[in-house]
Design brief:
The structure is a single chain. The protein is 38% helix and 19% strand. The strands form 2 sheets. A 7-stranded mixed β-sheet has the order 6-7-8-3-9-10-11, with helices on both faces. A hairpin with an 8-residue loop joins β1 and β2. α6 runs parallel beside α7. The termini are far apart. The protein binds adenosine-5'-triphosphate (ATP). Adenosine-5'-triphosphate binds next to β1, β2 and α1. Adenosine-5'-triphosphate (ATP) binds next to β1, β2 and α1.
Length: 358
């Protein structure tokens, strides 16, 4: 079996703030033991609420910030230890697109020049061919040759994002990290940019780490999904499995809070009650326990077992919630035939009721 394009293993990031002469040093546990893979030509959608650590993971993958632990393998090769010089070469294979392309486009530089700069820097084309390549890239993202001589402010938000995509593609990357790349756009423009990204994936074989807080966007764009809660991945899997059969209670809450994918479906969206814990406070139990409808007392004192990470498979981190679901789905008939199951479900129900009463 060939190696996946990117393999992230047990990635951890803790920021230390304060300290010094008078301040007390504090640790923000922002990313905790995160593992996932991105296959060639796949879009891995990383979704979670604000502050869950999505941007940090994107930056860790590109080594724009350094991890405290874990490893990163690009095409099977460890890149976590590479020197700055080696990383500069590797960065050509990995690009990033931000939410606000205006911030990353110099207002004084014509867009043709902005796209040509990385081609020249990495000497990807002979000088005389650079202009043709810029035109080719503009056309690839649905813009025209005549737009090369305009300045960024002459474009709409959606067009600017297309320019950012063209510039990222200029170095022929294998992986593009899209950090909230469509979040600032109107819905109809969002759909156009998402379709463009999917089209480029099919035509060029590029892969994406697509970061978004919006389940509806992830549903449209992702082939695989990772659901992040307070720095931990609580569920990963193929998109059709995660959306068709979400297993973690947090995934279900995110889905209930997002619009129905069925046109005309008037289902009420349910806001997620409560707040995630601060990264500065890491209690021993499950981070999601205070918001979890299936939580029992034990969840507040110990982390529920994590199912082992295995490549490409659907995994649910919370074995306890899974077991509760499985048992409650048993029909009375099945439960009668299986006294052990019946006993177990009675115990779980009682534990849950007691935990709610306290
Ligand atoms: N340099 C830093 N020092 C201390 N804490 C940080 C630093 N950078 C990020 N954090 C904290 O890490 C947590 C995760 O931030 P991050 O930006 O990765 O989350 P996010 O899921 O991308 O959220 P958002 O969608 O709001 O950008 C936040 O609580 C943030 O305050």
């Amino acid at each position: 079996m060939t190696a996946p394009l990117l393999e992230v293993r047990n990635l951890t990031k803790t920021y230390r703030t304060g300290g010094g002469l008078f301040g007390r040093e504090r640790a923000a546990h922002v990313v905790d033991d995160v593992s996932f893979v991105i296959e060639k030509g796949a879009t891995f959608g990383l979704v979670g609420e604000s502050g869950s650590g999505k941007t940090t993971i994107g930056r860790l993958v590109l080594r724009l910030v350094e991890a405290n632990g874990g490893s990163l393998l690009l095409d099977g090769e460890e890149i976590g230890e590479k020197s700055d010089a080696e990383m500069r070469r590797l960065r050509q294979r990995m690009q990033i697109i931000f939410q606000d392309p205006f911030a990353s486009l110099d207002p004084r530089v014509k867009v043709g020049e902005a796209i040509a700069a990385p081609i020249r820097l990495h000497r990807l084309r002979p000088r005389r061919d650079v202009r043709d390549r810029v035109v080719e890239l503009l056309e690839l993202v649905g813009l025209g040759a005549h737009q090369a001589d305009r300045f960024p402010h002459e474009f709409s938000g959606g067009q600017r994002q297309r320019i950012a995509i063209a510039r990222a593609l200029a170095v022929e990357p294998e992986l593009i990290v899209c950090d909230e790349a469509v979040s600032a756009l109107d819905l109809s423009i969002q759909a156009q940019v998402i379709n463009l990204l999917a089209d480029l994936r099919d035509r060029l074989g590029v892969s994406y780490l697509f970061i978004s807080h919006d389940m509806a966007v992830i549903r449209h764009v992702a082939t695989h999904v990772g659901v992040l809660y307070a720095g931990r991945l609580v569920e990963t899997g193929e998109a059709k499995e995660v959306f068709g059969n979400p297993r973690h209670p947090y995934t279900r809450m995110l889905l209930a809070a997002s619009p129905s994918p069925v046109p005309g479906d008037a289902r009420q969206r349910q806001a997620i009650a409560g707040e995630p814990p601060s990264p500065y406070e890491r209690a021993p139990g499950c981070r999601f326990a205070s918001r979890c409808p299936s939580a029992i007392d034990a969840c507040r004192s110990e982390q529920p077992p994590l199912s082992t990470f295995s490549r490409g498979s659907h995994q649910a981190a919370c074995i306890r919630a899974e077991e509760f679901d499985r048992l409650t789905l048993l029909s009375d008939e099945e439960a009668r035939m299986s006294p052990a199951y019946r006993l177990r479900i009675d115990l779980l129900r009682r534990a849950r009721a007691e935990s709610r009463a306290t």
